[in-house]
Amino acid sequence: MRLLETKFIFGVIALFVSCVSLLDCGGGGGVETNQGSGLPPQTNPSFMLSISPSTINIAQGGSQPVNINVIPRDGFTDSVTVIPGALPPGITVSPSSVTIAAGSSQAINLTASETALIAQQTIAFNGTSKTSSGGSSLQLTIRGAPVPDPFHYVGGDLVHGFYDENRKLLFATNLILNELDVVSSTDYSLKARIPVPSPIGIDQMADGNTLVVGTSAQELVTVDENSYAVTTHPFSAKGNSFFSLFFPTVVAMANGKVFAIGQEEGIESNDIVNGGQTLFEWDSNTNTFTQIEPSSTNPPWETDKLARSEDHKWAVFSADQFYLYSSDTDTFTTAPLSTVNPPDDSFGVRGYAMNSDGSKIAVASAARVNFFDRSFNLLGTAQIPSAFQNARSAVRFSADGTKLYLEYALPLSLEEVDVGSFNALGYMSATVNPDDDNLEGLLAITAEGQAYFNIDGGVRVVNLSQTPVANPPLAPFPAPSCILGYTSLPLNTTQQLQQTNALTNASVYIGSLPATIGNAGSEITIPASSTPGPVDVECIDMQGNTVVNYQGVSYGVDPVGLSASLLPPAGNGVAYLFGFGFPTGLNSQPPSVAIGNEPSPEVALIPDVAGTLQIAAFITPSGTPAQSADVTASSSLGNGTLPAAVTYYPMPTFLPSAGILQLTFDTLRNRLYALKSTEVDVLDGASLKWEAPLAFPPGVSGIVRSMETTPDGSKLAVLVTAGNTPEMIVLDPTGSSVGTVTTYSGTANVTGSIAITNRNTVIVAGVPGLVFDLSTQTFSPLSTQIGEVGQVVRASADGSHVYSAALNVTSGEVYSIDPTTLTVSSEQFGQLFWTDLAVSSDGSQFAAVDAPPDLVGDAVGFFNSNLQYINANAYPDFILPDDTGVLGATYSPGGKVLVVALGDSIEFWDTNTGRLRDRLTTPTELQVLVYPENAVAPMIALNAVGDTIFSVIPGGIAIISLPGPLDQMTPKLWPEYRPMHDTNSSRRGTMAMRMRKMPINTQSIKSRLKH
Prior knowledge:
This protein is mostly beta strands and 1011 residues long.
């Protein structure tokens, strides 16, 4: 580290005199200048000041004495008064002024406060006598002790939380990962990840042992806090319009009733995460749902929040009026909004809370917080410094009811209001940079005086005992200045950074260790570390206000995640390695990546990823089938290994074949059917040899669309369209009889998708839908229109269940068609868009898939047989889908896994949790979805055992043998790091599985790697 030059400050005169020798300077760093009152300057100074020691180190909260010596010259005998110059923040000198006789010395104490800035400082001391002036300086370094990290990464995105005071556990819903996370308040370790479908809101039931969770699915969920057992409570209801409801927000009352906000999918509310257009009551005693609001006579109605007292006896919410509920009497009382938010409800009610026994109600608007009793008598008003935000900002009382806290966002902070004096006291920062998380917010406030926030995939802890920062005139409330560039450095190496913007108002901790700031805040020295990986950077100001730069510094090389763990033993696959220690920049070079002992032939860095974590795209090298191998990365910063990260699957078989339109596997005969424009080719599933094709009968003139086999395997139906005239070809799979072709006598706008029931009928999707009776070889219109143009229809393996999904962005319908009566039931989910559909073997569940050709990755909605939306898929942090969808999503034979293919990979989704079990990189590009041709015909198929995937590729079929049956697949344990801050990506909507867009152009990188 470069030593800082000593700077001297000369008090009250302007004449500077340089020391000629160490002896002239008194040996103690002192410099004396002199100017008598009205006398010409003296050429020989009368005295010198010397400070011993001249360089000291003081720990925060500590003190150290120094001696000030007055060294006389030329018979100088006067006393000298010595006072310090400007002191750095947090430093005091005692006594503040001393008078020292010539030739004498006196000790003074320098003390650093607990929050004194960790920095190298220069302190000037000025001495004056009757005839002379002089000065000296002291070099001071403030040392800091390690501090606890206030940010604890979990992964995904947390939404809401409940803190259990008895168990000292924080339960937080993680919408992105489909889980309820359990965090210890003692060491902030993650105690459990409980699979819960699409969780959002959370509260504890009055029994103190059961959590109730609101979801973005059509159900409420209860969780036993002792066993972590999960119970779902599905319910379907229509909203005020025609879209189905979700229940994101809940509060639990003492009488066993739970209030849940009902939100219509596709209907925007003021708070899209929590708010909704209805209020439902779930009676946990009888497991019944009842709509409370709005009544049929009410105007359009919306509420965005629910709040209750700690004793579960009182609840409040705002809608067309302000509502107060008593669980003792099971009744509501109301007050006009102008009463709780006068004058005339000018700015709208923004938030509300109740104290522990419900005796005080706080109502926040844009300008103030009004406090009421349960009779809506005004108790007092607190003016707040800036407009309170209307989105999902929270209002909470402290456990003892003496304080009220208001959450502000961007940057995340907490305003403190004194309930006794009704004064806004100031704010505390809760931010983590970069702070632009749409789901961030207050999770809980504990009786121990801590506030927990969700931000950037983790839990941010704020100590409420610290002194709030004085409020600025207007929001946002600024966090401590901590503008540090993201830095990566080798192990066991310190590094000094030059700062363009001086760090003058905050101490800096890197990985909880103090970093020294020097040269008036323009230099910062990063401490060394022997542990590879990332650490957070914390900046703490004089009041204890803290901001965190997540993963702001990393050491060495630390690969932490791979986008796929199943790789082809040869080919041209592309994978993505996530890790630390291979940063992008003007002079940066991609790391060397190897699997086992085989280096990748080409590696490219993906730019524009915030933080020190980076992504390297690389061509997968060849390997040995069934080989499990490490992934290693090397750069100028060192080497790192991701152990046992990949497994090579057996070498796929490639069968040349032109013009394939669809694949279907016949589990009864163990063979694959490949649909073509004039025939159906037949492949033996054991020998992988082509058998005699099934030729179409004469008279087929239209475009071949799709095919299906009957549940008993006796027939194979093929749909053909000639304009708006459908034709049905019926083939004998044994080849012992000639096929037939039947033309519909009318016209119908059909989509090309068909499904066969256990009643020997073929359902044809379209407007109108058609029914083809295989026994009589006749068409008839379906009694109810299934949906709009572009929808897909699928049946269970036994034909007992038939489902359909609409490919329309404005409706998002799903349908159930009774095979016996042919009646149609439907549910509508606005703003959903389905491109594919899969049905489990027994029909108890189906999955609608959203993977259009203009976006990458896939979003999945899981439904039960009652058309209730029960879950969504959840990508882990280290998945980077970079290709578009492939038609043919299918369930494993046992229904545990949903297989969804993309152009360069195949994803295996757990149908119970919605989590990704594993991901396979394909050796060659698969046949992706293309509109409008063959937009409904499956391009992949699964054998009867579930260990072989057949897929259409350009010019043929790829046959991929998996390491084992899918139903026996062990779910992969994905690492718990945040891969990137996806500021430019579109998250999955909270009420819908909106498509996850890539924030970077991986397609161009993949193209460059392969060419």
